[in-house]
Structure formats: C-alpha cells, structure tokens
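Figure-free illustration: sequence to structure, shown twice.
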Amino acid sequence: MGTPHPVLAQLGWTSFFSGQVSAEQGTTYLPVRVLSVHRGRVTVLGEEGEESISSRMPAQGAAEDRPTVGDWLLIDPTTRGILRILTRTSLFKRPTPGDDRRVQLIAANVDTLFVVASCNQDFNIARIERYLVLTREVGARPVVVLTKADLSPTPDHLADAARALQAGLQVELVDGRDPASVARLAAYCGFGETVALVGSSGVGKSTLVNTLRGSDGIPTQSIREDDGKGRHTTTVREMHRLTDDAGGGGGGWLVDTPGMRELQMSEVATGVTEVFDDVTAVTLECRFTNCTHGDEPGCAIRAAITAGDLDPARVERWDKLAREDVANSGAVAVRRARLQKGGGRR
C-alpha cells in the first residue's frame, strides 16, 4: 500500500501494518481500527467512516485471537465481516479476575501507557510496579501520572517514590481538572500515536481524558471519602481522539479503561526482570542457580539485604510477582494445550 489515506494516518497506520497487507489485499479489503468493543460488535473507523460491525471472527481460536480496542482489522467491503486481525505492536492483557485460566484483553497497539495513581489512599507502590511490569513486557513507554496532589501534604515525596522504582522513569504530577497542568501530557500523544490510561477506579483517568480533549463527554464520579476508592464510571474500553489544538497533542488517541484494582500477572517474566533489574542482577551472584533466597548458603539476595544494598520490601514484591507470573503462566499454558486438543473451543 502506498501513501495512506489521511484517516488511516491519523489512526496510526504505519509501515508495520501496511507491510502485512499484500498489493492484492490492499485493493480488495479495507483496513479499519477498533475504537470500542461491545457484546458481539465492535465500533471501527477507516477511510469510509465510523461504523459498528460484528466482532465474529472467521474461526475460533485463543483469547488473543479476538479483536480488542486499538486493533487493526481487514474487513470485507461488501459483507463488512472481519477477515483477520493484523499483527499487533503491543497487546495489554491480564488473567480474568476470578478465573486465571481465561484472559481479558485491555488494548492493542499502544505506544505509551499512562499509569494513573492519585495522591491519596490509592497511592500504592506495589500496584504501580505491576503496571510497569506489564508495560515493559509489551514494549510500550510507561509514564506514571499522579493526580489529586491536593489530597496529600507531600505530593512531591510520592512523585520521588515513584521515580525511584526505575531509572529514567517519567513521572508527571498533575491536577486533572486544570487544562494548563494537564497540557504537558499531550506531548506524549502526537499525531497517530495511542496512549492508554490504566489505574484503579477513582484515580481520575476519565477526568484526564476529558481535560485533554477539552470536553466533559465522559462521565465522572467523586470518590468515597472513607477509603478514597472510586466507582466504575468507565464501563468499556474506548479510543478518544485528541484534537490537533488540544495542548499541542497533534491529534493522537487516548484509550480510557475501566478501573482495575486487581491486576494479576501472567507471561511477564521479561517485564519483571526489567522493572526489578537491580534485584535480578544480584540473583546471578547466588551460589546455586535454583536458589530460593531462603536458607541456602551463598545467597546473594540475603547478603545484599543484610548489607543494606537491597530494600527487603522491594525484594518481597519482586518475589511475589515472579511467583505469581510462574503460576498464572502455567495455567495459561495448560489452557492453550486444551484449546489445541479440543480444536479451538473456548
């Protein structure tokens, strides 16, 4: 395919995607991007405009083989049916809460992930680390966005705590209701780029999207005063366009997601290694390769903790995430094997 249609370019159509479409397919089928997912249908946008089509795939497969927000699809221009999902640059997913054998897709083809946390009871280093692990695993750029600074007497200390999680990590402290404060976030969402916002309910994701877009189109609710937790105001994952004049964002796309207080880890071994690179580097010095960092002699982790070189709380969080990933990844592998044996039935 040659120069992309202006709408496709705006949506983020790049050589990565056009390279997956043959010359014949380029003249026969239509590329569209998924803006939102509903029961049995997806809203898509392409050079022929926005429309709702069936989400039914030609053949059943694994959970990852169904369309999610941000996906690029090839559709038949006559039947409007989906022919295939183009290979993704990234895919955010998690084990379905309450059933680690199933997978919940969050968003695809995301360039930057805003990990949103508020400066109240919701601020949780362990939860932020989980999102960072997920981001590093899929190769997107993480940016920690701290909202509601007025709810903390020391918001700068919270920002410093987040920056300490990883060298070079971008942390932005903003007032989600103030356009001037939020404007600098638009720089992460340039022309054709996609930014997804993740975090617990009530941290201000929808407020950030509304402020960046200069509208109040997404409903928001106040948090509960007793525990600082919010209600689920966003019920579907949906892409929102950031117009060219919204803080200099260049017309990229924002993906608002429902709040996720529970984020189980699965198939994120690389992400764990990168986010906890200081801990994993020390494990290489253990006498035994299968060291559990308990009572074994020559354990470099215990020695580093004793010497004050490693924070025991950080080591504990690393160990928990690593074990969780092993357990959940095993469950996913078993499910895939059953699917293959059963001919793709879910």
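We now fold a second protein in the same way, so the two outputs can be compared directly.
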Amino acid sequence: MLYRHRLLTAGQLTQLLRPAATSTRYVRRQLEVLHDRGLVDASIRRATRAGELLWYTTTLGCEVVESGGELAPRAYRVTEDAAASPLQEHTLAVNTMGLAFVQHARGLDDECGPLDWDPEVAHRVRDGDSRLGDEAFLVPDAVLRYIHTTSTDDGGQQRMLLTFFCEIDRSTMSIARLAAKLHSYARYAHYIPQPAPGRGRAKAAAGHRREAWRARYPSFPRVLLVLDGASAGQLARRSDDLRALAAADARLQPAAVDLRAGVTTLDQLQRYGPFAPIVTPVLGDAEPTDVLLRPSAAAAAVA
C-alpha cells in the first residue's frame, strides 16, 4: 500500500487495514519493524505542529514489492526530498479521497479496497512526440475502481464496475487551469490513435479504428473533481466559477453528452459517501445529484 499510494499516515493505514481498531499502535509497531529493516522511511508532515509522520517505501522496499510480482512496477519512487516537499498535503488528500470510497463501500457491501485506486496514471491524448508533456498526455490525480451492488426487479442483485478519473484541487490551482483539464478529458474521450505506417493504416481505413480508452476501460470513466483546502463557502464559489467557465466554453459544449463530470468537496465525500446527492454536474443543471455516480447502462456488469 505504501508503494502504491506514495505517502500515508499511520492513521490512514489503520483505517484501511484494521477498520475496527481504536488505536494506531499495532500499525505503528509494524512500521517500526519495516523501518528497522530499511524497507520504509518517514517524513514529518509540514502542515502540523504535532510532528505527524508520513510513511513511504525506500528504494529497497520498492525492490521488495516489485520482486513479489503482485503489483505492476511504477516508474515513480518517493525520495526523501519528495516526501518532504510541499506536495505532501495533495498526496494525502488523494489518499483521503480513496479512503472515503473504501469506508463507504464497506457500509454498502460494495467492493473498493485499499489497492483500488492508482495515482497519476498517464493516458495519451494525442499523437506525436511524447516530450510534449501535458499536450500529449492526460494524467488524472487518481484512477479509482469501484464495484457497486444494486437490487434488480426480480429480487436478485446486479454488480456494476464503476471507474472514476479523480482530480483533487486544494484551492492551489486557478479555476481557469482546472477548467482547462476538462478539455483533456473531452479530448481523451474521442482520441483515436493513428496507426503506424504500413498494414495498420489499411486496416484503420477499413473502419477498425477505436478510441484509445476502450483498450483500458469497459466504459468511459466518470470524471470527479474534488475540492478541498478552503472554507465551505469558498469551495462553493470555486465550484460555481468552474461551472460558469465550463458553460461559457463553446469547445466543451459538444462534450456534455459524453463527459460525465461532476464536482464535490472532500468533506462531503467523507461525510456522506459517493452515492449521496453531493455531486454538482460541471456541465448542465446546477442541482447536486447522485446521478453521476449511479451505475448506468454504460457501466460494465460484473459476474
């Protein structure tokens, strides 16, 4: 979990691994054992005066995890400098969001576990030179998977896989930049890779080209923008400003049909869970709803 999620507190680890525990003592003891073996290390949380520790895997710890073959290797590794950087709170907020999904899944008898979200997964959104960076790739703060169970009319149950592209904004990003991210999601929804010269081009010309996302997801993920880092009133204004910019952007209007994007706050997500009417559509009606998070006909059924 430390390898996957980069930085976690003992409290977060306890809530994920030992939800019935009333103390972090056991988890802290195990972290000390791993620390003594050189597998994990800790950095002091900058935003608190109490000296709370943020834990991460060392180079040796990463090698041990990767040698086990249970997780796909990640190119990014947390260094001592990265663990102590100003990005601490953003990383923790991403994991707090994932934890909120996990905790509410337990109460609903759904499935969303400690390893069901991946930070910063790159998705190509245009052909050409990879060195174009943001122009060539879409990188959500996290991709989260959730299996939701609903009752059917015949008394049975239907299990649906929901996938979310999650963006966390701690009130440090301009609204214009946050709105611009929607363009990347809209672009990815329609991006069809161009085949390499040769036989692939002939096949593409024959009508076999498909959107890139179909190779990774059974349906196009919902886009969830999660606001944090300010008062409730300030976050409400940021949400309104974001919606106003999106409504005034003629380039985004064609995406309204295909792009299921909504905005909420981290506090609401923690308090009420992902299936409460807490999400305001970025494009469309201004009333908070739960419709963006409900299973739909496009969601993938799970056996």
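Summary for the second example: The first helix runs from residue 2 to 5.
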